[in-house]
Amino acid sequence: MTTSVPYRPYRTASCKARKLLVKLGENHAVVPSQCYITNVCLTNSSYPITGGGFADIFQGYLGKTLVAVKRLRVFASSMTAEQEHQLKRLCREALVWQQIHHPNILPFLGVARDLFPFQLCLVAPWAAKGNIVTYLENHPAPTVRLIYRLLYQVARGVAYLHWLNIVHGDLRGANILIDEDHHVRLADFGLSVFAEGTAGPGTCTNRDGSMAWMAPELIDPVQFGHHDYYRTTATDVYAYACVCLEVCTGRRPFAGLPDSAILLSVLRGERPPRPSNTECRGLALHDNLWDIMTRCWNPNALSRPDVRQVACCLGEMQRNAI
Question: pTM, whole model, 2 decimals?
Answer without folding.
Answer: 0.89
